[in-house]
Amino acid sequence: MRKFALLLSVCAPVLFATLVHAQQFDFAVGGGTLFSTRNTTASQGYLAPAEKGGLYPSISFDRVYKKRYGYSAEITWRDKQGIYNDYQQFRPVIYDFNALYEPHLTGLFPPRQEKRISIDFMGGAGGESVLYANPYGYCGYSTGCATRLDSNHFLLHASAEIRYRLWRNFFVRPEAHIYHIINNTNDFHSDNVFRLGASIGYTFHTD
Fold this sequence. Notes:
Layout: H1 2-17, E1 24-35, E2 53-64, E3 69-77, E4 82-84, E5 88-101, H2 111-114, E6 117-140, E7 144-167, E8 170-181, E9 192-205
Antiparallel strand pairs: 1-2, 1-9, 2-3, 3-5, 4-5, 5-6, 6-7, 7-8, 8-9
């Protein structure tokens, strides 16, 4: 988690320095859960588990320009450590950076609702860090003993989100994400992971 805190601390000043030129800036917090397939046919005694379940809080922001294009970033992590094959604790952390498109929805909804609803499509890349807590420690001559091992992977991300403005600038946003995590089968059964959830956020408008 220290790596991500450092990344956010470096990026935050750059992000907020650009807001004065943006048409719209959204900040949201939310939660969801992961879904993925599991191996039901293999006869091996030790199978890689499915990467699914658990509560995943999330923090996200996006910036949308006047032509309805923009960019976004998000980080989500497992709230409580899971148990990997009944052996050791683990916690995935997933982050992504995306291009964003918010199409016009003219004629799709009643006029009163049309101004309250928007749909965002996103696609980009990011990474996953699976933080393992080794209950027995790992000792090396030069490194000493460590109780945590990390597994890092590059990923591709796509998502669709429906935003509904509740009151003034506050909105709720059901969302669906798909991650293709490169070499995720080193840790889990599948390279493809889905996340379903929802967020609540606030929109800042600037000139």
